[in-house]
Amino acid sequence: MAKESSAFQIDENKRKQMQAEQEQIRKRVKQIKHQILVLSGKGGVGKSTVAVNLAVSLALSGKSVGLLDIDIHGPSIPKILNLEERAVQATGETILPIEMTENLKVMSIGFLLRGSNDAVIWRGPMKYQMIKQFLKDVDWGSLDFLVVDSPPGTGDEPLSIVQLLENADGAIIVTTPQEVALSDVRRCITFCHNLKLPVLGVVENMSGFVCPKCGEMTDIFKSGGGEKMAKQMNVPFLGRIPIDPQIVQSCDSGQPYVQHYGSSQAAQAFKEAMLPLLNLEEKR
User: Are 174 and 44 in contact (CB under 8 A)?
Assistant: First the structure.
């Protein structure tokens, strides 16, 4: 009987602790007007590139933005933004995100690793606790948008962030035009529907190649598959982003593409994909 009473006390204490942690997350999130998840059912479709350039586009438009990288095993945001040498600061239990610009803050597990080659070998519960810490302990302050870059698939990380945020505005789904990617992206949309997470729209990345010399478009991976799939799944289509070698160069050099190549076709496509997010502000 004493053992049962002790076990009950432990469970009750754990329940109270979880409630207190979730309440702390609610207080943090209450200062953020909109929370946007960037998802994809398939790896290698340029999801992190889309997340970074959407966040930077919002920041360039004058919005205060937080960019949260919850890809625990493959954090690429620090590399894309040339922040690999930066380290986060902490005061007590509060973690301060990296301030890239006056109105763009960034957080990633990459800032907490000893080196860029370190591997994070964690099971689901550890990843859940890390994501919870990103929301509970990171002082994001007052933001217009929090853009969350999630790893591909429908596993621990996207499920954890949806549950912890409780009422995210929705998800942007990234795909490439070919069917091998689209089949996995359909599952990602179903994941959103099952969790009652609105799908803000689909972005078709790597949609054609624009020749830098003559301007001719060549459909290397086909084109239009994402738009067709979005129509079939009855979700909005946000636009096509063509292949541009300068996107690769900007990611490798840590220079945000939309900031340094703002007049290019791909940069204009990123900005058009951002418009529905700005409409969220107008509807509020």
Answer: no
SS (H, E, C) 2-23: HHHHHHHHHHHHHHHHHHHHHH
**Model confidence band, residue 74 (pLDDT cutoffs 50, 70, 90):** confident
> What is the domain partition of the chain in residue ranges?
28-283
Name the phi and psi angles at 128, rounded to 5. Answer: -60, -45
Strands 98-101 and 104-108: antiparallel
State pTM to two decimals.
0.89
Label residues 194-208 b or e (16+ Cβ within 10 Å = b). Answer: eeebebbbbbbbbbb
C-alpha Rg value of the chain to the nearest Å: 20
Question: What is the pLDDT confidence band of residue 7, given thresholds at 50, 70 and 90?
Answer: low
Report d(CA 139, CA 187) in Å as an integer: 33
CA-to-CA dists, residue 44 to 50, 175, 254, angstroms: 12, 9, 18
pLDDT, tens digit, 9 for 90 and up, residues 184-223:
889 999 999 999 999 999 999 887 776 666 666 667 666 7
> Residue 161, CB half-sphere, CA atoms under 13 Å: how many?
28
* Per-residue pLDDT tens over the stretch 229-266: 999 999 999 988 888 777 877 887 777 888 877 778 88
Q: Which fold has domain 28-283?
A: Rossmann fold (3.40.50)
Please check whether residue 67 is in contact with residue 60, taking contact to mean a CB–CB distance below 8 angstroms: no
